[in-house]
Design brief:
This protein has about 100 residues and is mainly β. The protein has strands at about 5-10, 15-20, 30-35, 40-50, 60-65, 70-80, 85-90, 95-100.
Length: about 100
């Protein structure tokens, strides 16, 4: 059973980034945390799905504002085998990390 860091990225502007794919035959509990390293607010997105890119129905956060030099964390997200997590920011200088446990 893997635990700890599942993925991390320094996000590019307005680009969907595949952060993590849940292992085959595993259920994964994930927390995802954004850190806005800017002196102004940014908007972030999180999608969980199985395709090659996020579909409209995959978004669990959509253009959620993260305050200047602030953080946003979603906790206890459950992903089934093979599901993918994509993240996105409308501005550079945003870090993101997925951490959790595969069961």
């Amino acid at each position: 059973m893997a635990s700890g860091k599942l993925g991390a990225a320094d996000l590019a502007v307005a680009t969907d980034t595949l952060l993590f794919t849940a292992a085959a035959s595993k259920v994964t509990t994930v927390n995802v945390r954004f850190a806005n390293r800017n002196p102004t607010p940014v908007k972030v997105r999180v999608a969980i799905g199985v395709g090659g890119a996020p579909a409209n129905m995959d978004y669990i956060d959509y253009d959620v504002s993260v305050i200047a030099n602030g953080v946003l964390e979603d906790t206890g997200l459950v992903m089934t085998a093979g599901e993918k997590m994509w993240v996105r920011s409308d501005t550079a200088n945003v870090s993101v990390r997925a951490h959790g446990m595969e069961n």
